[in-house]
Records
---
Amino acid sequence: MLQPMTETTLAAARTPIKVAILGAGRGGTALLDLLHLIPSIEIVGITDRNPDAPGILRAKNLRIAVSARMEDLVCNHGVNVIMDVTGDPAVERFVHIHKQPITEVLSGSAARLLWELVRHEADLRAELFHAEKLAGIGSFAAGLAHDINNPLQLIMGLAENLIEEPDVKVVREQARDIIEAVRRTSAICRDLTQYARKASVHDDSMVSLNNRLDEALKIARYAVSFHDIMVQRDYAEVAEVRGSADEVLHMFVNLITNAVQAMEQEGGMLRLATNTSPGAVTVTIADTGCGIAPDILGQIFEPFFTTKEPGKGTGLGLYNVKTIVTKMQGTINVESRVDHGTTITITFPRATENRM
Ligand SMILES: Nc1ncnc2c1ncn2[C@@H]1O[C@H](COP(=O)(O)OP(=O)(O)O)[C@@H](O)[C@H]1O
Ligand SMILES: [Mg+2]
């Protein structure tokens, strides 16, 4: 009997709490950085007397509205909570006089307490991120040993020949081969040390999805065996999103690793695709593996949910993927049929170059 196709989609929550931030210094910037990651919070705007305050620049990069006049935010009917981190008693008085009756105000040590809590949570999340990546790197050992051993064997053979080789021309040629083999080994080490470093979570630049997919493919090859797995790539000419290159790479390594692990038994086809439309950029990672049973489909994004044996899975891969996609204001859709395969489609809003 043909297994039914099941599907799940993660998208932003519906009715968010609308927040306005007064003050774009250190406190305001930290609030902005953390609150914009939370789907149930919408930052209506931020304001500061200083147009070059760090939080103002950050807001422009995140495409969050910046108000030149504080009263526009304070009097705004759509704001549920005003967070005043200016520390300025004049601002506090102004807010209490001019705010809408239904708007609540968090200021002084209450605002500080809140950002201490949120920052603590963000630190934990960053640690979890890194821990998951390092756990994954543990499984690289076998692939890595193999890939480093090959050029080492070659170097050994060439060096042995050199001892007996009288012809200087041949000696030079073999020396060049040795250098080439050493270069290959160094490239492997460079890829992995770059991947292993802590992702720079505040990076915000144009990231090429095609390039990140290719890079992720290289790294995933150390983690899982691609034996009997064909790879098909269908890329749009240019597919760019705004975000952190490290995080996008980490996300793709996780998704490709999952896809290949799902095809471990019988081999299959891994398809990587990017597409663009006027408003969106999509990435598709599809496998022809074991599929996901409908009764667990709703749980795969939960932290520590895994069906893999210890050592193979941490259950944090998709949880981290979800965190990154949400941060980038994207959505992720999973379509799966048991014994036929899984297709993961991530849709990002189309990035624009027009940073202010
Ligand atoms: N492409 C896939 N095919 C089949 N099952 C998958 C796929 N991707 C994820 N899963 C399921 O979702 C679970 C959670 O995935 P993940 O969060 O990456 O954790 P882990 O891979 O460490 O188990 C997996 O254990 C597996 O059961
Ligand atoms: Mg995984």
---
Amino acid sequence: MNNNTLFDNTEIAFALKSDSELERAYFLFKMISIEPLVRIGTAATHFAIKAKLPVEGLIRATVFDHFCGGVSEENCLPVIDKMYEKGVSSVLDYSVEGKENEEEFDAALRITLKIINFAEERKSIPIAVFKPSGFGRIALYEKMGKHDTLTDKETDEWNRVLNRFETVCKTAKSRDVSVLIDAEESWMQDAADSLITDLMRKYNTEKPIVFNTLQMYRHDRLDFLKAQHKLAKSEGFYLGYKIVRGAYMEKENERAEKKGYPTPICESKEATDLNFNSAVAYMMDNLADMSIFNGTHNELSSYYLMDLMKEKGIENSDKRVWFGQLYGMSDHISFNLSNLGYNVAKYVPFGPVKDVMPYLIRRAEENTSVAGQTGRELNLLSKEKKRRKQ
Ligand SMILES: Cc1cc2nc3c(=O)[nH]c(=O)nc-3n(C[C@H](O)[C@H](O)[C@H](O)COP(=O)(O)OP(=O)(O)OC[C@H]3O[C@@H](n4cnc5c(N)ncnc54)[C@H](O)[C@@H]3O)c2cc1C
């Protein structure tokens, strides 16, 4: 069994942070731990951006620089290089959200392709990522998932979505770069799942290149994983999955209640945790057929995977197993893992300041609602501040 205090080493966790960056991070987490402040701050920011007030500089110097790598992919390079010196890889995440037109979808495609080309040239970026909603309208995925008949216009539109997925996965395969596809709301996921399964069948013939995401707060995902495994084995392709708990719980529960169907979400946090562990254990039992990207800030989930690797005699650096966290969060997990030779990648969000605001607001809200996590970040930062003063 692993020693469950490994992540407590703050010297390793924050080695890349200067004293002033450490102070800024402490101040930031302190601010976002105060719920009313986040609510007021969010409203004020929305207003200021809409009113075109000059707040970008302020946002950039605070939340943006903490949670994002830069405004463009090139802009992120110093952050990426610095992290890679400590063995932590990057997944460049174009975090512009909520744009629903063809020009924006094509722009997201161009940026994703550029990132894959970038990744091919740099060992520090072994994996690319995109969101299905970046390539097509959510309502269209929903319609496809329900097997509704599409109009001719919608059929063309869907074909363009297919083309975008296809282009990315084909390029990723030719450049030998893995590509993670994020999971979003359950009502768009069926269409995304079947599309991604087709791409796995096509491009995961020698090893996993295309990775789907399983949100383990959904109680149906373990069965889905097992069914996918059966399918992949019978047809001879590899599976790649990013395992996460899931980020849209409130939205899922509210919609289910409003529309009167049973929620897809597990009945409790404990049930989600159990489901998450079961998926990780299942994947580790079948590692010959699949690769896992463990996307979590949960310490126990990270220790659990480390324990399973040890138990099964799997080397820390085995390329089929990745640990992932978001930039600006849980550095104590990322950097202590990389220090031990595990494969670790951080999502590095980037994009124009005003366009990544929805992402930043989610991070602020998440860190407010997951009170334990903010407390944890604050404790670790405070411990490191004290250590440096000694
Ligand atoms: C690298 C990376 C990639 C990610 N990609 C995606 C993605 O593609 N799609 C996506 O949706 N999310 C994604 N996430 C976010 C992720 O789903 C979680 O929201 C976030 O990581 C918090 O979960 P945790 O495991 O880190 O920590 P924890 O704090 O242990 O778990 C919090 C999570 O538990 C679940 N939960 C909380 N309360 C309950 C309850 N009462 N009942 C049931 N479940 C509950 C929720 O999912 C909540 O987010 C990603 C996260 C990372 C680190």
